Every structure is written in structure tokens, then in C-alpha cells.
Amino acid sequence: MTLRADAARSRERILAAARSHDVRALRLNDVARDAGVGIGTVYRHFPTVHALIEALSIDSLGRLQDASEAAARNPDPLSALHGFLRAALLLQLEDAGLEAVLIDLARTDPVVHSECAAARAEVFAGYTAVLTRAQRAGVVREDVSPAQLQRLVCGVEHAVRLGAPDDRSILLDILLAGIGPRTQQIPAVAAC
First vs last Cα of the chain: how many Å apart? Predict the structure, then answer.
């Protein structure tokens, strides 16, 4: 369904106003005020803050899809995985809402945001393809799932935000070493 010209302009003003806010503290009333539209107009386009965050993250999801396609073209499975995870981490650090879009699947309404749902499905397909290829090549543990890998990237993102930007490389290296093939038996840890 295409929007009327005035509705499309309102939507773009809302998105522009939202981009000037920290997405972790986004409030629809503030966005409406800054966009110069009524709160009802914001709710018609974005019924929840999460729906607005999804709209803001569409470009980042596209860039993450591009990163997975670049990884697929890289003939070296380990190098492809490293490059993809570095790109994913950088995008999540640039777009503070991307993690919520990737992790909080239960809150997504595909009717409201079919574009985001489709883009996210492509991103997860990319995670799966890059990880599976690395696992088949024996350079990554067989027991790591794409969802676990994505959550690990989110964990590194949090650690970098808590620390310093310079921590990014070492923390990503630790993640990569941790998912590498097991070279020795590690004693099982008792359940918490």
C-alpha cells in the first residue's frame, strides 16, 4: 500500500525527528513534538516505539545483508566469518536500535513492518550461511547456533559500550577464539 503524499511527508518528518534522539530513550511524544505533527499521526505510522525503531533500522539491516553477501563471496570460510562478525558489530555500535530489532522477535508485527521482518529474515539467513560454511570447514565449533552467535555479537556490543571503543578489536578477537574449534577438552561446568 502506498502512502498519500502528505502521509509520506509526515512519515519522513517523524523518522528524521526520531533519528535525532537516542533510540534507547525514545518517546513518541517527543518525536511528535520535534516532527511538528500530532501524536495521533505518529501512532498511525508507528503504533509502538519498537515499530519506530524497526523503521529506523531498515538501512542498517540492508547493510548487514550486504555484509553477509560479501562474506558469501569470500572463498575463505574463516575470513568470511570474521569479516561478517566485524561488520555486524560495527553496525550494532552505529545503530543502537539494531540489537532490539534483531533480538526482540516477539514484539515485531509483520503487518506493521513487513519490510523489517523480511530484511531480518535475510540477515538471519546470512548468519546461518556464513556460520554453517565455517562449521563445515572445521574452523568453528559445530555446537554454535546462528542465534547464539548473534547474541554473542550483542554481548560484545554491550561490553564495548560499557568500556571504550578501543575494546572492540580485542573483544571481537576473544569471541572469535571462543567459537573456534575445540583443541582440548574443557571440563564441564556445573549448571548454575
Answer: 50
Question: Do 58 and 115 contact (CB within 8 A), yes or no?
Answer: yes
- Nearest-angstrom CA–CA distance, 158 and 152: 10
Cβ–Cβ < 8 Å for 130, 137 = no
Tell me the C-alpha distance between 10 and 74, whole Å: 42
- Measured CA to CA, the distance from residue 165 to residue 3 in angstroms comes to 40
Q: Which residues of the chain, if any, have pLDDT below 70?
A: 1-3, 104-113, 184-192
Residue 110, pLDDT score: 59
179 in Cβ contact with 149 (< 8 Å): yes
**The model's pTM:** 0.80
pLDDT of 71 reads 93
- Which of these CATH numbers, 2.40.128.110, 1.10.287.500, 3.90.1740.10, 1.10.357.10, describes 57-178? 1.10.357.10
SS3 76: coil
Rounded Cα distance between 65 and 128, Å, is: 12
Determine the pLDDT at residue 82: 95
Pick the CATH number of 7-46 from 1.10.1060, 3.30.1330, 3.40.50, 1.10.10: 1.10.10
